Amino acid sequence: MPSQDKKWRHHYVWQHYLKAWYGDDNLLCVEERGSRRRATTKSIAYGRDFYRLKDIPEAQLALLEALVAKMGEPFRELARGWFPTFRAVFKLQRLATVNGITDPELEREFDVALSNLEEDLHGRFEQSAVKPLAALRRGDATPLQDKDEFMEFSMFLALQYFRTPKLQSSVLQVFQEFGIDMSSAWGLMRTIFATNVGGALYRGRSTFKIGFLSAGKSSSFITGDQPMLNLKGTDGLDLYYPLTPRSALRITLESVAPGVEEVSLTDDETKAYNERIRAAAESQLYAQLEEHLLAR
Predict the structure, then answer these.
(1) Which element (helix H / strand E) includes 10?
(2) In terms of residue numbers, what domain contains 65?
(3) Quick one: pLDDT at residue 233?
(4) 68 domain-assigned
(5) Contact at 8 Å (CB) between 18 and 27?
(6) Tens digits of residue pLDDT in 241-283
(7) pLDDT for the residue 256
(8) Computed over its alpha carbons, how large is the radius of gyration of the chain?
(9) How far apart are CA 45 and CA 226, in angstroms?
(10) pLDDT at 72
(11) Which of these, 26, 13, 44, 19, lies nearest to 244 by C-alpha position?
(12) Tens digit of each residue's pLDDT (9 = 90 or more) over 216-240
């Protein structure tokens, strides 16, 4: 394994995405537990070792295998491909133990790999999304319509939904209600879920209603630590994603009227979307100006 620095500041909202809310002072406004401050993206939307891998017990692996078995092809095999990725370091650790290998440098490399693997995975998808995101911010729907470009971008969109603390706590709570602890498997599970949803988006791209939403004249979009919303919940896919303080994206799968539309919202309609973001947030909301967070 190549030597690299250990990453512990794991961002669950992409810093590049959040910088669209920077003001002239290169800061954005953060609301957290009723108080507000201006901050850089580096100091928000992260958890210490949030993506650090955990060894997954066999019972949890078996349950994940059963979930993957219900997926359609070719995304079932893509999902299965994540299992070796998330288990490789632990297998190497056990192999070293069985062979009596005690090497401090090797242990350090194992430690770095456990901290960096999923963080780096998100970084790769983020890097591939820089150009598509810029196009969407210009009102260009090509990244959602081009077959080749959307192949990878669909996974990026799905990860923005699943990579957050709010989704983690919500999904794990559902399993907990059935007496199942899936916390050790969540890193692999969220990646599998994102593969499934990304696959559904890719397969259904011809049925998209793509809405480019413009904020009301006297209002602005806010975002939060759960920036991607599914407005349909468990009843389908209707994704809402603020793009900038002035623009947002809405993707409705299996629409009765597929196509692209530009929608100029009223101030009240903008505030209604902002309230959905507020309701979905775990602990932090982000805006360009404090007054945008105060508008209720």
Answers:
(1) strand 9-11
(2) 9-294
(3) 83
(4) yes
(5) no
(6) 999 999 999 999 998 899 999 999 999 999 999 999 999 999 9
(7) 86
(8) 20
(9) 10
(10) 82
(11) 19
(12) 999 999 999 999 999 998 788 999 9
**Closest-CA residue to 136 (of 14, 233, 242):** 242
Looking at residue 7, the DSSP 8-state letter turns out to be P
Q: Is residue 2 part of a domain?
A: no
What is d(CA 52, CA 47) in angstroms, rounded to the nearest whole number? 10
- Does any domain span residue 4? no
**How far, in Å, are 46, 148, 180, 239, 274 from residue 8 at the CA level?**
9, 34, 28, 30, 31
Q: How confident is the model at residue 1 (pLDDT cuts 50, 70, 90)?
A: very low
Residue whose pair of structure tokens reads 């250990």 in the numeric block: 6
Q: Where are the alpha helices (DSSP H) in 70-207?
A: 75-80, 82-98, 104-137, 142-145, 147-162, 165-177, 186-203
Segment 44-97, tens digit of pLDDT: 999 999 999 999 999 999 999 999 998 888 888 999 999 999 999 999 999 999
* Residue listed under structure tokens 């945008």: 292
Q: What is the pLDDT of residue 54?
A: 96
Number of domains comprising the chain: 1
* 71: in domain: yes
In eight-state DSSP terms, residue 222 is -
Q: Tokens 């999902």 map to which residue?
A: 79
